[in-house]
Write a structure and sequence with these properties.
Blueprint (H helix, E strand, L loop, with lengths): L4 H16 L4 E5 L9 H4 L6 H18 L1 H4 L3 H10 L6 E5 L2 H10 L7 E6 L1 H7 L6 E2 L6 H5 L10 E4 L5 H5 L2 E5 L14 H4 L3 E6 L4 H10 L4 H4 L3 H9 L8 H15 L1
Helix pairs in contact: 6-11
Length: about 260
């Protein structure tokens, strides 16, 4: 069965963006209402910027202190590891692989709402904000100096070139934007000009193309184990090799179909 026109249109939009932006980053959301905010600024606990900064410093110090035997890292290297293990940081995950972003959009999609893929030109983002094409943190200021308040975070997001210091970043082609102290979602930064100028593009995925997405991911060999190459990822792949997304509604439909056949 051929891909639907809707899915082919999505692929064409991706191709058009990549032709115009040889370096393109992607991010997938299973819910189109999800904001382009980092974990740090998505939290509702702090009430103002100063409290967010206190939480950021606290999390860094706790992870450094209690996890030293496991990581023995500090500064930006530790921040990247924190992000990939689920600590709420000011980093926002992106990938250079469309298939990887698509997997994360599909992975927990209930198909009762739209999912989405975001496309970003990191070079154009930084150019818009008068920053180097890609900020190499290995050659820049220390993260700990930002936490101490000796250097101020920028008010807007920037695209950064991360140190590939863990296996997940490598296999997921992981990259990051670092959210600034303006605390706005990326699509709202620069008065929305990132969207109007095509630096940031949003593509919605409707439930009608879910089967196409599933086939596309299987065809490209993308699954839990390829993106999480550890025993936890292997266990999830073994349990669910077909990328099935079983929602209650889907199960009810299958049950009703079976009852119809029996009757």
């Amino acid at each position: 069965m051929a891909y639907s026109k809707e899915w082919l249109n999505v692929l064409n939009q991706i191709d058009d963006f990549c032709r115009q932006n040889p370096l393109a980053w992607f991010r997938g959301h299973s819910d189109a209402s999800f904001e382009l905010k980092s974990g740090l600024f998505r939290s509702n606990i702090p009430r103002n910027l100063n409290e967010y900064l206190l939480y950021e410093s606290y999390r860094y110090n706790q992870f450094r202190k209690y996890g030293h035997l496991d990581h023995q890292l500090t500064d930006w290297n530790l921040l990247f590891v924190m992000q990939h293990h689920g600590v709420e940081t000011r980093l926002l995950d992106w990938t250079e692989s469309f298939a990887t972003a698509l997997f994360f959009a599909y992975r927990s999609w209930t198909q009762e709402n739209d999912a989405e893929i975001w496309l970003l030109s990191p070079n154009m983002l930084n150019k818009k904000n008068k920053q180097p094409s890609l900020i190499d943190l290995a050659e820049g200021d220390n993260y700990i100096d930002y936490l101490k308040g000796e250097i101020n975070f920028l008010p807007y997001s920037v695209a950064i070139s991360p140190i590939k210091n863990n296996r997940r970043i490598i296999v997921q082609n992981g990259t990051f934007t670092m959210q600034g102290n303006g605390m706005q979602p990326l699509d709202k930064e620069c008065n929305g000009e990132l969207m109007s100028e095509g630096i940031l593009v949003r593509i919605k995925l409707t439930p009608t193309c879910a089967e196409d997405i599933k086939r596309f991911l299987i065809l490209n060999g993308v699954n839990e184990y390829t993106l999480f190459p550890d025993l936890d990822g292997l266990a999830k792949f073994v349990n669910n090799p077909g990328l099935e997304v079983q929602t209650l509604k889907a199960l009810e439909k299958k049950a009703a179909s079976i009852m119809t056949m029996l009757n």
